[in-house]
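Chapter review: from sequence to fold.
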Amino acid sequence: MIDIKTIRENPDAVRAGLTKRGRKTEIVDEFLALDSKWRAASTSLDAARAAQNELSKARDVEGAKMKKAAVKELEAAVSTLEAERNDLLQKFPNIPMDDVPVGTDDSGNVLVREVGTKRAFAFEPKDYLTIAEKLGVIDVKKASEVSGSRFGYLFGKAALLEFALVQFAMKRLSRKGFVPVVPPVMIRPEPFMGMGRLAADQKDERYYFPADDLYLVGSAEHTLGPIHMNETLRDKDLPKRYVAFSTCFRREAGSYGKDTKGILRVHQFDKVEMFSFANPEKSAEEHQFLLSCQEDLLSALGLPYRVVEICTGDMGWTDAKAYDCETWLPGQNGGKGEYRETNSCSNTTDFQARGIGCKTDKGGYAHMLNATGLAIGRIVIAIIENYQTPDGDFEIPEVLREYF
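The token string follows.
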């Protein structure tokens, strides 16, 4: 969540940040009005409690009893106002950093660099699904019969490729100082909300089990952040870096009609995710480090990609600054090829840390950052298309062969 003190002391900056994101700014005045009422009621409550104590010391039993009733009434009022204020606070996204490009949608994203050489095929490249279905290694038709739309089975070579990618990423990133983790894929509402992942524009994405009061995570990020919930981290131990493997679940509520074929956009997918707890003064540096780790993985796999900086109108709810890596898929667009997003890399500053209570011993909150290591399904797609052969098969990148 956003810092209440920032809204109180610098409301114009908050309004400016909301405007850059294309959000309504009236919420700032609504919050300040509610906050003012809460503060006034809290002051009255403190005064009533002090008066009650004085009456008790003076052994004025009747007076103390009457004042106790007034205290109880004020406590209820303060509690109600605080709940309303906190609910409103959840409607504030993170404020973008000053250097984030301003835009309304992904058309405002800025190309940072293109890396790698696109393979020149002596034949017209096919899309991954055409290749995979002919080989019998991906089956979305049977998955649709069993589970509905946006699911897929991986068989044989594709299934082995998934596990090779996981082992490759975990090994390469653990050598860079990331601690490997297999986290829970279910999360309680309180930490999920603290991570900023139950905001109004995200709640429809979540799978919820009312009988258990648990959500399925949409990324390992969601349960990696709460590893240090309600903890104070020693500054000398930062950054603390984790790399996790998990299955992820998303409704894809806002993607009606998009990528309905194949496994590019599905309800269930596997991912290797990086997460870092950083010193606030060094989080920009840590952000670039995570981005470099993503690029290292893609380069090692021999996949051409480009890095784009995400504009204010396309950034995620919790992001203060973000990048995407988009990988070249030569079989898309009728064999002409196109870049598709495979990795995201975000600095959420203290937004998520404030929500889950993760502080540093230097005072204030830690900065929390997350970045895709490998979105397995999408990288399987990229390998099939970039490493396809004239006979309708595909090769395995050299760095993965030891895992086969």
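Two observations follow directly from the output. Residues 4-89 form a domain with the Helix Hairpins fold (CATH 1.10.287.40). The longest strand covers residues 268-278.
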